[in-house]
Amino acid sequence: MLNNWVVAPACLPLVLRRCHACASERFRASGKFRVNANHKLLDAWLLVLCTACGVTAKLTVLERMNVRSVRPELLDRLHDNDPALTAELLQDPVVRRRNRIALDWDNAWHLDTGGADHLHREVIDVSVRFAARIPVRPVRLIADGCGLSRAEVERLITEGNLVSAVRLTGKLSGDFTFTLKR
Protein backbone atom coordinates (compact mmCIF):
# COMPACT_ATOMS: atom_id res chain seq x y z
CA MET A 1 0.00 0.00 0.00
CA LEU A 2 1.36 3.41 -1.01
CA ASN A 3 1.40 6.04 1.74
CA ASN A 4 0.96 9.66 0.67
CA TRP A 5 2.88 12.34 2.53
CA VAL A 6 2.46 16.06 1.86
CA VAL A 7 5.02 18.77 2.60
CA ALA A 8 3.06 22.02 2.96
CA PRO A 9 3.88 25.55 4.08
CA ALA A 10 2.93 26.28 7.69
CA CYS A 11 3.61 30.01 7.27
CA LEU A 12 5.43 32.34 4.91
CA PRO A 13 9.20 31.82 4.68
CA LEU A 14 11.64 34.50 5.77
CA VAL A 15 13.24 36.58 3.03
CA LEU A 16 17.03 36.52 2.99
CA ARG A 17 18.30 39.97 2.10
CA ARG A 18 20.67 42.40 3.80
CA CYS A 19 19.05 45.21 5.81
CA HIS A 20 20.45 48.64 4.96
CA ALA A 21 19.81 49.91 8.50
CA CYS A 22 21.17 47.17 10.80
CA ALA A 23 22.95 44.64 8.52
CA SER A 24 20.55 41.84 9.55
CA GLU A 25 19.83 39.36 6.79
CA ARG A 26 16.26 38.29 7.53
CA PHE A 27 12.98 39.94 6.61
CA ARG A 28 9.41 38.79 7.08
CA ALA A 29 6.70 39.53 4.55
CA SER A 30 4.22 42.07 5.90
CA GLY A 31 1.49 40.89 3.52
CA LYS A 32 1.04 44.47 2.33
CA PHE A 33 1.61 45.85 -1.14
CA ARG A 34 2.33 49.35 -2.32
CA VAL A 35 1.08 50.35 -5.75
CA ASN A 36 2.17 53.62 -7.35
CA ALA A 37 0.90 55.09 -10.60
CA ASN A 38 2.84 57.60 -12.63
CA HIS A 39 0.58 58.66 -15.49
CA LYS A 40 -0.14 55.37 -17.31
CA LEU A 41 2.71 53.43 -15.74
CA LEU A 42 2.41 51.27 -12.62
CA ASP A 43 4.93 50.16 -10.05
CA ALA A 44 4.07 47.64 -7.34
CA TRP A 45 6.10 46.39 -4.40
CA LEU A 46 5.69 43.76 -1.71
CA LEU A 47 6.66 45.27 1.65
CA VAL A 48 8.94 43.26 3.93
CA LEU A 49 10.04 44.08 7.48
CA CYS A 50 13.49 43.48 8.98
CA THR A 51 13.22 40.91 11.78
CA ALA A 52 15.88 42.75 13.82
CA CYS A 53 15.07 46.47 13.54
CA GLY A 54 11.65 46.52 11.83
CA VAL A 55 12.72 48.74 8.94
CA THR A 56 10.61 48.33 5.77
CA ALA A 57 12.09 47.27 2.44
CA LYS A 58 10.34 46.93 -0.91
CA LEU A 59 10.49 43.93 -3.23
CA THR A 60 9.66 44.90 -6.81
CA VAL A 61 6.65 43.08 -8.22
CA LEU A 62 5.80 45.33 -11.19
CA GLU A 63 8.11 47.94 -12.64
CA ARG A 64 6.97 50.63 -15.08
CA MET A 65 4.16 48.49 -16.46
CA ASN A 66 1.52 50.07 -18.67
CA VAL A 67 -1.79 50.07 -16.78
CA ARG A 68 -3.57 48.31 -19.64
CA SER A 69 -1.08 45.43 -19.62
CA VAL A 70 -1.77 44.55 -15.96
CA ARG A 71 -4.59 42.05 -15.47
CA PRO A 72 -7.45 43.71 -13.53
CA GLU A 73 -7.71 40.74 -11.11
CA LEU A 74 -3.99 41.10 -10.27
CA LEU A 75 -4.46 44.79 -9.62
CA ASP A 76 -7.44 44.04 -7.36
CA ARG A 77 -5.40 41.47 -5.43
CA LEU A 78 -2.56 43.99 -5.00
CA HIS A 79 -4.97 46.66 -3.72
CA ASP A 80 -6.64 44.13 -1.38
CA ASN A 81 -3.27 42.98 0.09
CA ASP A 82 -4.19 39.39 -0.79
CA PRO A 83 -2.17 37.03 1.49
CA ALA A 84 -2.28 34.26 -1.14
CA LEU A 85 -0.69 36.64 -3.64
CA THR A 86 2.12 37.30 -1.15
CA ALA A 87 2.83 33.56 -0.96
CA GLU A 88 2.66 33.20 -4.77
CA LEU A 89 5.04 36.08 -5.38
CA LEU A 90 7.59 34.88 -2.83
CA GLN A 91 7.64 31.53 -4.70
CA ASP A 92 7.97 33.19 -8.11
CA PRO A 93 11.54 32.72 -9.40
CA VAL A 94 11.29 35.89 -11.52
CA VAL A 95 10.46 38.02 -8.47
CA ARG A 96 13.22 36.37 -6.43
CA ARG A 97 15.80 36.86 -9.19
CA ARG A 98 14.76 40.48 -9.86
CA ASN A 99 15.10 41.36 -6.18
CA ARG A 100 18.18 39.16 -5.55
CA ILE A 101 16.57 37.38 -2.61
CA ALA A 102 16.43 33.85 -1.30
CA LEU A 103 13.90 32.23 1.03
CA ASP A 104 14.56 30.66 4.43
CA TRP A 105 12.07 27.79 4.89
CA ASP A 106 13.37 26.69 8.32
CA ASN A 107 10.36 26.14 10.61
CA ALA A 108 7.98 27.36 7.88
CA TRP A 109 6.67 23.97 6.68
CA HIS A 110 5.05 20.85 8.09
CA LEU A 111 4.82 17.22 7.04
CA ASP A 112 1.44 15.50 6.88
CA THR A 113 1.95 11.72 6.93
CA GLY A 114 -1.73 10.85 7.19
CA GLY A 115 -1.29 9.14 10.56
CA ALA A 116 1.12 6.73 12.23
CA ASP A 117 -0.37 3.44 10.96
CA HIS A 118 2.62 2.89 8.64
CA LEU A 119 5.23 2.78 11.44
CA HIS A 120 4.72 -0.90 12.35
CA ARG A 121 5.07 -2.33 8.80
CA GLU A 122 8.14 -4.19 7.54
CA VAL A 123 8.09 -2.47 4.13
CA ILE A 124 6.79 1.05 3.59
CA ASP A 125 6.20 2.58 0.15
CA VAL A 126 5.79 6.36 0.35
CA SER A 127 4.96 9.03 -2.20
CA VAL A 128 6.03 12.50 -1.05
CA ARG A 129 4.24 15.45 -2.65
CA PHE A 130 5.22 19.09 -2.22
CA ALA A 131 2.35 21.58 -1.99
CA ALA A 132 4.88 24.38 -2.65
CA ARG A 133 8.50 24.49 -3.82
CA ILE A 134 10.01 24.06 -0.37
CA PRO A 135 13.64 22.87 -0.39
CA VAL A 136 13.91 20.14 2.26
CA ARG A 137 16.40 17.37 2.90
CA PRO A 138 14.70 14.01 2.21
CA VAL A 139 16.68 12.49 5.10
CA ARG A 140 14.98 14.95 7.45
CA LEU A 141 11.52 14.24 5.98
CA ILE A 142 11.95 10.50 6.29
CA ALA A 143 13.32 10.80 9.83
CA ASP A 144 10.39 13.01 10.90
CA GLY A 145 7.77 10.88 9.13
CA CYS A 146 9.04 7.52 10.38
CA GLY A 147 10.10 8.54 13.88
CA LEU A 148 13.79 7.81 13.22
CA SER A 149 16.95 9.78 13.80
CA ARG A 150 18.72 11.24 10.78
CA ALA A 151 21.72 9.00 11.50
CA GLU A 152 19.43 5.93 11.35
CA VAL A 153 18.00 7.09 8.02
CA GLU A 154 21.49 7.61 6.60
CA ARG A 155 22.49 4.14 7.85
CA LEU A 156 19.41 2.63 6.11
CA ILE A 157 20.40 4.37 2.86
CA THR A 158 23.96 3.04 3.13
CA GLU A 159 22.73 -0.51 3.84
CA GLY A 160 20.35 -0.39 0.87
CA ASN A 161 17.20 -0.68 3.03
CA LEU A 162 16.01 2.78 2.00
CA VAL A 163 15.83 3.24 -1.77
CA SER A 164 14.48 5.86 -4.14
CA ALA A 165 14.76 6.83 -7.78
CA VAL A 166 16.07 10.25 -6.65
CA ARG A 167 19.18 11.03 -4.63
CA LEU A 168 18.15 11.25 -0.96
CA THR A 169 21.13 13.34 0.12
CA GLY A 170 21.08 17.09 -0.42
CA LYS A 171 17.85 19.06 -0.79
CA LEU A 172 14.76 18.43 -2.92
CA SER A 173 11.71 20.54 -3.63
CA GLY A 174 9.95 18.20 -6.05
CA ASP A 175 7.80 15.11 -5.59
CA PHE A 176 9.51 11.75 -5.07
CA THR A 177 8.87 8.22 -3.83
CA PHE A 178 10.88 5.89 -1.62
CA THR A 179 10.72 2.39 -0.16
CA LEU A 180 11.85 1.60 3.40
CA LYS A 181 12.60 -1.98 4.46
CA ARG A 182 13.09 -2.51 8.19
What's a concise summary of this model?
This protein has 182 residues and is of the alpha+beta class. Helices cover 24% and strands 38% of the residues. Helix 4 (138-146) crosses helix 5 (150-159).
Overview features:
182 residues, 10 strands, elongated, alpha+beta, 5-stranded mixed beta sheet
Write up what this structure looks like.
Helices cover 24% and strands 38% of the residues. The chain has 5 helices and 10 strands. Strands 7-1-8-10-9 form a 5-stranded mixed sheet. Strands 5-4-3-2-6 form a 5-stranded antiparallel sheet. A hairpin with a 2-residue loop joins strand 3 and strand 4 (41-50). Helix 4 (138-146) crosses helix 5. The longest helix has 10 residues, at 150-159. The chain is elongated, with a radius of gyration of 21 Å. The protein starts with a strand and ends with a strand. The mean pLDDT is 92.
Shape: elongated
Mean pLDDT, to the nearest integer, reads 92
- The succession of helices and strands, N to C, reads EEEEEHHHEEEHHEE
Structural class: alpha+beta
Low-pLDDT residue intervals, each spanning 5 or more residues:
none
In quaternary terms, these chains amount to: single chain
What is the CA-atom radius of gyration, in angstroms?
A: 21 Å
Percent in helix: 10-25%
